[in-house]
Structures are given as structure tokens and as C-alpha cells.
Amino acid sequence: NDSIDLEIRIYEGKQARLNKVSVIGNTKTNDHVVMREIRTKPGDLFNRSNIIRSQRELAQLGYFDPEKLNVDIDPDPVKHTVDVDYIVAEKPSDQINLQGGWGAGRVVGSLGLVFNNFSARNFFKKNAWTPLPSGDGQKLSLTASSNGIYYQNYNISFTEPWLGGKKPTSLTFSLYKSVSSNGQTGDDRESIEISGATIGLGKRLKFPDDYFTLFQNINFQQYELNNSQSFFSYTNGYSNNMSYGITLGRSSVDQPTFP
């Protein structure tokens, strides 16, 4: 007849364990920053899902070119082990935002600098300034905007994504100040100055799944009014405000791209 019976017999061997796990190509980012995001550890059973998730975590960092991110798997069937090499290629990760304009007879401008792979521990090391100390995965942000004597705003923030270096608990600290006025001086000046500080802690959760994050922050603000005709119940003096915020989020975005 015109049919064939085909029987395929598969004999499943001993599950392999990971032997060596290494990273190749990180010329700027320090090894510990990369290795702490990798979910495949020497001695663990080989798990393809953990390798795929590790690739996703490396892409989430934003330090490496996602098109060149690769994994080289070298099995040893005799020893039942597997060597895994994560191959990465550094890419520029810092951001500069410069805006300017002209309106109402004055210049309006803003400048923002974001260093996404900063290294605070090398800040006082002269040789590390190439042009900035980098490689530890910390984030430093500096922003300023103004339209002259009527409005100024300044903000500086710093984030350590792995507080203590052992768990993915992030620490964020920021300082900010804004001044709004009528542009006058002396007794004719009307202004509101807002100064503040924020400290926050973020944590990666394991329930409902490990894509969830929890972020908590405490914010302190001080308002200084000078002949202000605003919605406040007073026109001169100080007032303080303290608030607490909590954010529960979930993100499973794979290889995000900053435009």
C-alpha cells in the first residue's frame, strides 16, 4: 500500500546542570551589574525559560544593543553540564534633553541630563572620569528650566537599583526647588518658592508573579510665600507638607526602545 508506519524512540538522559556562566562584551558596565540580573547560576539545572528571562532582564537595563544580544550554549554530554555565555554589546545609554523657545518677550528653556549607568563610588577617582564615572548601573538625573525672572525650576535625583548589592531593592532620593514670581523686586515682589525632598524604596515582588513591583515614597515640601495672591490662606510666611505615596505596578515589556 501507500502508507508507512514511522516510530521514533527517544531516550531522555540525565538533566544537565550549568557549569560556567559568563558575560562577554561588557566593556563599560561592570560584571556584577550584569550578573545580578542573570537568572542562570552555576550548579542550577539547565532551564531554557531562565535563559530567555535573563535575556529580557539584560535588555531592560538599556545599556546593551538588543540586536546584538545573544546567548552561546555549549553542552557537554559526557559530564552532563552546560556552559552559558551571554554576549552583549554596549550602546550609549545617557540622555540629553534641550528645549528652547521665545514667547511673551522672553526666552523659555529647559535642560535635562540623565546618566543611566552612573557610578557614585568612583566619583572622587580622577581616572574614572571618561567623561563621567560609569558602570555601576546607578541613575543620576539633573534638570533645570526657566523663563528668566518669572520662573525657575531645578531638580536632582539619584537612584541605586540594588541597595546593598544583594537584593533588587531600589533607593531613590531627589531634591527640587521652584520659584514663581511677578518679576518684580522689593516691596512689589510677589512670589511662591517651593522646596522639597523625596525618598523612595522600590521592591520586586514574587506574587502574583515576579513582574510586579512595589514602590513607596515619602515627600516633604516647604512653601515660602511673599505677598502671594494665590489660593493659600495667607500671603506671607511658610508652610510645610509631608505626604506618603505607594505604587503597585506590573511590566512585562520585552526589550524596550527609547526613541
Automatic annotation (TrEMBL):
Cellular localisation: Membrane
A UniProt-annotated Pfam family: POTRA
Chief location bin: membrane
Keyword Zinc annotated: no
GO terms for cellular component: outer membrane
POTRA domain span: 16-91
InterPro entries registered for this protein in UniProt: BamA/TamA_POTRA (IPR010827), D15-like (IPR039910), POTRA (IPR034746)
Keyword annotations of the record: Cell outer membrane, Membrane, Signal, Transmembrane
PANTHER family in the cross-refs: SORTING AND ASSEMBLY MACHINERY SAMM50 PROTEIN FAMILY MEMBER, TRANSLOCATION AND ASSEMBLY MODULE SUBUNIT TAMA
Protein name: POTRA domain-containing protein
Species of origin: marine metagenome
